[in-house]
């Protein structure tokens, strides 16, 4: 058993290892689809918060092929750069490019609205409050231990990570100084299914250190407990 697997088991967190990025995407798609189907059967609606960046692209492409009652599903983002959808770095743009069949049918709740970062966070919080608890959240993680746009050392981090955070969405600054919008612990911890997808040995090292408990200042450490499920692939391509 690897150190990563041993530490995850000690925490009571399920860890799945995928041989490739494509297998990781398939594993995620199956669990997301099952959770959404169960939510639709139980409550007639379902909610999903997705991460952006390059790593989720295979998952988005897999979800785009799934037949589901998408008209009854609400989709939002875990975080967003404060840029319009047509910007190359927009996470909303990423979703529209890689799962257009899904996005054309769902109830889409963007984080960016163009009024200003603070105003957009307030508007998104008001809309997302009615969605809580979420059904599925898919998190990623940076090599610095950040998740969503919750970064080590950011102002108000402890309050933002708390499941009792005052708002589900807030505006913040990334280490590069650029404005972002992020879900807080109030939304992220609420999810019935919480997934963390990581790829590459550098991120495995970061996650191992976080699971060992020695880096409580890393935002990802706040989520390393049940009901989180982790899927890891050494394939960082």
UniProtKB/TrEMBL annotation:
InterPro entries: 6-phosphogluconolactonase_DevB, 6PGL, Glc/Gal-6P_isomerase, NagB/RpiA_transferase-like. Keywords: Hydrolase. Transmembrane segments: none annotated. It is an enzyme of class 3 (hydrolase). Pathway: Carbohydrate degradation; pentose phosphate pathway; D-ribulose 5-phosphate from D-glucose 6-phosphate (oxidative stage): step 2/3. The keyword Membrane does not apply. Its EC number is 3.1.1.31. It catalyses: 6-phospho-D-glucono-1,5-lactone + H2O = 6-phospho-D-gluconate + H(+). The keyword Calcium does not apply. Residues 20-223 form the Glucosamine/galactosamine-6-phosphate isomerase domain. Hydrolysis of 6-phosphogluconolactone to 6-phosphogluconate. Belongs to the glucosamine/galactosamine-6-phosphate isomerase family. 6-phosphogluconolactonase subfamily. NCBIfam families: pgl. This is 6-phosphogluconolactonase. It comes from Halopseudomonas sabulinigri.
């Amino acid at each position: 058993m690897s150190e990563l697997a041993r530490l995850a088991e000690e925490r009571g967190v399920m860890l799945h290892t995928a041989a490739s990025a494509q297998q990781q995407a398939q594993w995620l798609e199956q669990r997301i689809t099952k959770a959404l189907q169960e939510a639709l059967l139980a409550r007639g609606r379902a909610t999903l918060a997705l991460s952006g960046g390059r790593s989720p692209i295979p998952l988005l492409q897999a979800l785009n092929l799934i037949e589901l009652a998408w008209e009854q599903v609400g989709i939002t983002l875990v975080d967003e750069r404060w840029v319009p959808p047509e910007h190359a770095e927009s996470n909303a743009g990423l979703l529209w490019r890689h799962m257009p069949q899904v996005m054309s049918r769902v109830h889409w709740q963007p984080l960016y609205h163009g009024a200003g970062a603070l105003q957009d966070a307030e508007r998104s919080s008001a809309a997302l409050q009615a969605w809580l608890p979420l059904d599925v959240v898919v998190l990623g993680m940076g090599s610095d231990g950040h998740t969503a746009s919750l970064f080590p050392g950011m102002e108000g981090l402890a309050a933002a990570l708390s499941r009792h955070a005052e708002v589900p969405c807030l505006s913040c600054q990334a280490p590069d100084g650029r404005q972002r919008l992020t879900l807080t612990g109030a939304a992220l911890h609420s999810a019935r299914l919480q997934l963390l997808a990581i790829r590459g040995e550098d991120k495995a090292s970061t996650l191992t250190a976080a699971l060992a408990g020695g880096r409580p200042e890393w935002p990802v450490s706040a989520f390393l407990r049940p009901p989180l499920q982790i899927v890891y692939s050494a394939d960082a391509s």
